[in-house]
Structures are given as structure tokens and as C-alpha cells.
Amino acid sequence: MKFSFSWLVALLAGLAVLVGYFVPILGWLQELVVQVAVLLASFALLAGIFNLLGVHWNRVDTGKPGSGYSILLVFSFIIPLITAGLDFWFSGRPMGYWTLWAFRYIQVPVEASLFALLAVTLSYAAARMLSRRLDIPGLVFFVTIFLVLLLTSPYISVFLTQFGLGGVRNLFTQVLAAGGTRGLLLGVALGTIATGIRILMGVDRPYG
């Protein structure tokens, strides 16, 4: 295993956080490392934001293809700053009338449109999957999408509620969906643990 200073820093930081969970007396060291990591992540986030805006502004300035989307991205970044500034100027709080207005009439419609597009995309993907390969996983995927879209429809929900079948809707949209979500979260957790172990051992070195 090739030694490097970056790997040593990553190893010591990871061990400090890990040991802090099992040795309470070293909790201060864990908290210090986490605070430094949060501070560095904040500066990295700011650097990423300025880099993103610079890249898209350069695309607009040079007239490259897709510059219209870049204009939308720049405006979507500027509008929340303006609304938060107006709220802070008039009410002394960053969250007020103008921020709620932007959230209600801009962000909520955009999110609703994205969710509607996601439903259509999943349905189309399921149909193409069945047309190419008809097997049990494909059928389970298609039936799951069909039932979730059907049972979450407001008209079907009212119909089921009137006939006392609301529990059927809750079974699919809450119980089974919650089980699937927990399974995904467990997979993410196991993958994160495996990745952390590989980084501590120096097998993976995403830091360079």
C-alpha cells in the first residue's frame, strides 16, 4: 500500500470520528474533526457555486448551444437572493412574504412538473422494458408503477374512501413503499460503510 500524506490525513480523520462513537472521552476530538469537515465543505460548496455560475455565464456570453438553459439557471440562483434580500430589508428576516411568494409560485410548480414528468418517464420505461424483455422482474416493476399511479390518483382515492377501501391504498402507498424505501436506505448505508472502509485502508483514494 503506497504511503501518501493525503491518505494519512484521511486515515486519521476517519479513525478520529469512528473512535469517538465507541470511546466517549474522545468525543471532543470527533466533534472537532466534524466541525473542520463542515467548514471545509462550506467553502467547497461556495467554490462550486461560483464555478457553476462562471461556467454558465461564460456559455451565455459566448452564445454556445444550450445558453437558454444557462440563463434560466443563473436567474434561478439570483431570484432567491433578491427575495431574501427584500424580506430582510423590510422585515428583518430572510424568510418572509417575497421568499414565500417565490416558493409558492415558482418552486412548487416546478417540482410538481418534475414529479409529473417522472411518472410519465417511469411508465414509458416500464412499457419499453416489457416490449424488449418479458420476465418476472419486469412485470413486478410494471405492476408496481401501475398500482402506485392508480392508487395515488385523487379520483381513485375518493372512490376507495367512499367504499371503505382506504386501507388498500395505504397498504401500497405507505406500507409497501416504506418497506422498499427502508431497503434502499439499508443498501445505501452498507455501501457507505464499505466505501469508508476502503478509503481508510487506502484502497480507494478519491482525494487524489
Strand proportion: under 5%
Structural class: mainly alpha
Shape: extended
Helix fraction by DSSP (H/I, runs of at least 4) = over 70%
Mean pLDDT: 83
Could you give the distance between the termini?
15 Å
Low-confidence stretches: none
Number of strands: 0
Number of helices: 7
Topology pattern, helix = H, strand = E: HHHHHHH
The biggest beta sheet reads: none
Rg over CA atoms, rounded to whole Å, is 25 Å
Structure report:
The protein has about 210 residues and is mostly helical. It has a domain of about 50 residues. The chain is built from 7 helices and no strands. The protein is extended and about 65 Å long. The chain starts with a helix and ends in an 8-residue tail after the last helix.
Element layout with pairings:
Blueprint: H1 5-22, H2 27-62, H3 67-91, H4 97-132, H5 136-151, H6 154-162, H7 166-200
